[in-house]
Amino acid sequence: MNFLLDTHALLWWLTADPRLSSVARNAIEDPDASRYISSVTPFEIATKVRIGKLDFAREIAENFDNYVTAGAFKCLDVNTGHALLAGKMPGNHKDPFDRLLAAQCKAESLSLITADPAFAEFGLNLIW
């Protein structure tokens, strides 16, 4: 299985948060899975730590590369194709971080691990 983690799913997995569903946890822990995080994810985390929305994630933001390595995550860089697709995709979802994740999933044929039902409007395969 190949998937990208939404930011909250990554944070919940890293902090053993019980809000992470068992289906999502099992997918992340599957040794045969290809686990991706977006290059926009550390930007989102650092931004939200800076503005006080994710104080609990300060240590994760400061040591992000170590967490990525320890979790055997692959970083999927945002390219111009992803950016253009994110801007062109129809739908009412306005969060630019989410639109980029959705575009990456579409372009790279990845499922998305997320608890956010708003991603359904993009026609993605959601894992939760």
Automatic annotation (TrEMBL):
Coiled-coil intervals, chain numbering: none
Domain PIN span(s) in chain numbering: 4-122
SUPFAM superfamilies listed in its UniProt record: PIN domain-like (SSF88723)
Protein name per its UniProtKB record: PIN domain nuclease of toxin-antitoxin system
Gene3D superfamilies in the cross-refs: 5'-nuclease
InterPro entries cross-referenced by the UniProt entry: PIN-like_dom_sf (IPR029060), PIN_dom (IPR002716), PIN_Sll0205 (IPR041705), TA_system_RNase (IPR052919)
